[in-house]
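Lecture notes, part 5. Sequence design as translation. It can be helpful to think of inverse folding as translation between two languages: the language of shapes and the language of residues. The source text, in C-alpha cells, appears below.
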C-alpha cells in the first residue's frame, strides 16, 4: 500500500462515498513508487466538476471547462479533475476541447509518459494499463501510445521528455527519443511560458547535463540557446532558480539577454541576470573594485558570483578574503553610508545635479579609504572640490 496523506485519503473516500471513482494520479503515484515524497498530489475522478463542488465545503473552480476543481482540505489545495480525454490539437498547443469520459483507462491514455499514466487508491492499489510500473523499475521514459502522434499533438511533451530525464534520471526509450528528436521544430510553436516552466525544472534538477542532447540537436536554438556548455557545473550550485538559470544561460546561450527575452523571463529574473553579468565582466584587482561592484549590485549577487567562479574552477580566494573583510569590518561603499548627505551639501552652496556628482566623488573617496568617512573630512573635501 502506498502512503497517501490524510487529506488526499479524505478527498478520495468522500468522492467514493458519493458513488464515484477517485484516484491519486500522475506524478504523485510515480514519485511514491520511486520512494520519493511527492511535492503535490492530483486526483482524477469519474464525478463531474459540479458534483465535486457539491461534495466539499471549500472548493475553487480553477478550470471547470477542463474538468478541474480545486478542493481545499486543511492546508492542502488539491486539483481534482474529471476523467477526460483530449480533443484534437489543431494548434499543437492545447486540445481544442476536452471530453469527459467514463473510464480511468481513457483518462490515463491522454497522459504523456507511461510512468505518469498511473493511478492509485487504497481500495484498488496501483492501476497500470500502459506498463508504467515496469518502466519505473527499468527507469525508462516511454510515450503512452504512438510517440509520433503524441509529440505532434502537444510538442511540449518533447521538452518534458528531457525534463523528466533530468529530474528522474530515467532514460528515454529509443522509439520515443527518436520521435522527439525528429519533431524538435514543433517546440517553436509552444507558448514560451510553458517552455520556461519545464526548462527551469530541468535546470534546477539533479541531472541538468541530460539537457545536452537536446541542445546539441538544436532543439533550443529558437531561444538562442545553441552552445552545449558543461552543464555538470550546475550540479555544484544550490537549486536557487535565478542562479541556476543564469549559469545555464551563461554556459549555453549565445546572448543571455536575448534568451531571457525569448523565454519571457520576469523583470526580477532579468534584473538578477543583469547584475550577475556586471559582476562577471568586472575586473577585480583591489578591494575598491569589489566595493564599487557591491554598490552597483549587492552582497547577495557578489556571493552568487563567487559561488559561480568556484564552480567553474577559478581561484577566487583573494576576492573572497577581501569581500569578507568588507562585510566583517562594515566598510562603507554606499552613498547613504556617507557621513554627510545632500542637505549638508546644499548648505555648502551646492545645488542641482552637482549634488549627486559630488556625493559620488565622496563615495569613491570613502571606498578607497574608509577613514575619510567623517563629517569634517567630507566637508573639507567638498570645499576643496568647490575650489577646483
Ligand atoms: P512533477 O512532479 O515534476 O510536477 P508531474 O508528472 O506531476 O511532475 P505535472 O506537469 O505536474 O508533472 O503534470 C501532472 C500530470 O499531468 C503528469 O504526471 C501527466 O500525467 C499529466 N500531464 C502534464 N502535462 C502533460 C502533457 N503536456 N501531456 C500529457 N500529459 C500531461
Ligand atoms: Mg506535478
Amino acid at each position: 500500500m502506498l502512503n497517501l496523506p490524510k487529506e488526499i485519503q479524505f478527498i478520495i473516500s468522500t468522492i467514493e462515498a458519493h458513488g464515484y471513482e477517485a484516484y491519486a494520479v500522475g506524478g504523485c503515484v510515480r514519485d511514491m513508487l520511486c520512494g520519493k515524497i511527492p511535492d503535490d498530489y492530483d486526483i482524477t475522478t469519474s464525478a463531474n466538476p459540479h458534483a465535486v463542488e457539491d461534495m466539499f465545503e471549500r472548493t475553487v473552480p480553477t478550470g471547470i471547462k477542463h474538468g478541474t476543481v480545486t478542493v481545499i482540505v486543511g492546508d492542502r489545495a488539491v486539483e481534482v479533475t474529471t476523467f477526460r480525454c483530449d480533443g484534437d490539437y489543431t494548434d499543437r498547443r492545447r486540445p481544442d476541447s476536452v471530453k469527459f469520459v467514463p473510464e480511468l483507462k481513457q483518462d490515463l491514455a491522454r497522459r504523456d509518459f507511461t510512468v505518469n499514466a498511473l493511478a492509485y487508491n487504497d481500495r484498488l492499489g496501483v492501476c497500470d494499463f500502459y506498463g508504467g510500473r515496469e518502466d519505473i523499475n527499468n527507469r525508462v521514459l516511454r510515450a503512452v501510445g504512438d510517440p509520433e502522434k503524441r509529440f505532434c499533438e502537444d510538442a511540449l511533451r518533447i521538452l518534458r521528455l528531457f525534463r523528466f530525464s533530468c529530474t528522474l534520471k530515467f532514460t528515454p526509450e529509443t522509439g520515443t527519443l527518436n520521435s522527439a528528436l525528429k519533431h524538435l521544430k514543433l517546440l517553436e510553436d509552444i507558448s514560451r511560458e510553458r517552455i520556461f516552466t519545464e526548462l527551469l525544472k530541468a535546470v534546477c534538477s539533479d541531472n541538468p547535463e541530460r539537457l545536452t542532447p537536446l541542445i546539441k540537436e538544436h532543439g533550443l536554438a529558437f531561444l538562442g540557446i545553441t552552445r552545449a556548455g558543461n552543464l555538470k557545473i550546475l550540479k555544484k550550485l544550490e537549486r536557487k532558480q535565478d542562479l541556476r538559470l543564469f549559469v545555464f544561460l551563461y554556459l549555453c546561450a549565445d546572448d543571455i539577454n536575448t534568451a531571457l527575452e525569448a523565454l519571457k523571463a520576469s523583470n526580477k529574473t532579468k534584473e538578477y541576470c543583469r547584475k550577475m553579468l556586471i559582476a562577471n565582466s568586472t575586473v577585480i584587482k583591489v578591494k575598491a573594485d569589489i566595493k564599487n561592484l557591491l554598490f552597483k549590485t549587492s552582497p547577495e549577487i557578489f556571493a552568487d558570483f563567487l559561488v559561480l567562479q568556484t564552480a567553474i574552477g577559478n581561484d577566487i580566494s583573494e576576492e573572497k578574503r577581501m569581500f569578507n573583510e568588507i562585510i566583517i569590518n562594515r566598510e562603507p561603499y554606499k552613498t547613504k553610508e556617507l557621513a554627510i548627505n545632500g542637505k549638508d551639501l546644499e548648505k555648502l552652496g551646492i545645488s542641482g545635479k552637482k549634488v549627486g556628482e559630488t556625493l559620488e566623488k565622496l563615495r569613491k573617496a570613502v571606498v578607497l579609504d574608509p577613514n575619510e568617512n567623517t563629517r569634517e573630512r567630507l566637508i573639507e573635501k567638498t570645499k576643496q572640490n568647490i575650489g577646483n
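The translated text above is only one of many valid answers, since several sequences can fold into similar shapes. The chain has a mean pLDDT of 96.
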